[in-house]
Amino acid sequence: MSVAPDRSQTPRASVVAQLRAVLVAVGVVVAAVLLGAVFTIAVFVPLIAVGAVPETATSIVVIAALIPSQLAFAAVGLLVMVVLLGDVSVRLPTRTDATWVALGLGGSFSAVVLLLVASTVVDLTPVQSVVGEAATVDPMVLVALAVLSVLVIAPAEEFLFRGAVQGRLRQTFGPVGAVGIASAIFASLHVFNFIGGGIVVLVPVTVLFVVGSVLGYVYERTGNLVVPIAVHALYNATLFLSSFVVG
């Protein structure tokens, strides 16, 4: 636990240094994904061997599939922050932090509404997600994901994308560049959550980029990872529970 570094200065860096920073950031995410695959295989192979994994996408299966990969995200993010950045940037939230949580939620949901309206205007067919497919089999998947978002997903992804990736990029690009590039990487990784392809995928990916930018911005303003974790957790949980109630 430490006080976040000064984010007010934008360092000047050569093109080589910038390229290196981006490659390191992408490499960190790739390492997290690969480690997540290893963790998931380590959990699922024994379960499949004893016939403990049902064929349908139940809420239990979804949780079992996500927890190992998310723990890998958290582990890699924490390792990078401690070893490479020397800064964890986690502390008890203040009243100001709580205000930024509220502002972050407002900004995130506003982005979703605006982009959904825009997709309707240009008459884009809604894209189906992997989560939506699983929820048609077992609606309790949405409740499980809401709980998992608060306990595991939001902390793990924020440690990786905001803490490690954005933190590393900030050293070279400064706050603005770090938020933009980290958000682009964050959104790009989530492309695999959607079924199909083409231009329709641009809407959810753009939403994720904007939400990632909001998360990155509140982190830069507060220097406390607890703030984007809270925004991310409440945002995800609200979407999943709303879908459960409506669906």
Please state the CA-atom Rg, rounded to the nearest Å.
18 Å
For the sheet with most strands, the description reads: 2 strands, antiparallel
N-to-C span: 42 Å
Please provide the count of β strands.
2
The helix content, as a percent range, equals over 70%
**Biggest sheet: strand arrangement:** 1-2
Number of helices: 7
Task: Report the portion of residues in β strands.
Answer: under 5%
Overview of the molecule:
The protein is mostly helical and 247 residues long. Helices cover 77% and strands 2% of the residues. The chain has seven helices and two strands; from the N terminus they run αααβααβαα. It has helices spanning 15-49, 59-85, 95-121, 130-137, 140-189, 202-222, 226-246; strands spanning 128-129, 194-195. A two-stranded antiparallel ribbon has the order 1-2. α1 (15-49) runs antiparallel to α5 (140-189), α2 (59-85) runs parallel beside α5 (140-189) and α3 (95-121) packs antiparallel against α6 (202-222). The longest helix has 50 residues, at 140-189. It is globular, with a radius of gyration of 18 Å. The mean pLDDT is 86.
Quick take:
Helix 2 packs parallel to helix 5. This protein has seven helices and two strands. Helices cover 77% and strands 2% of the residues.
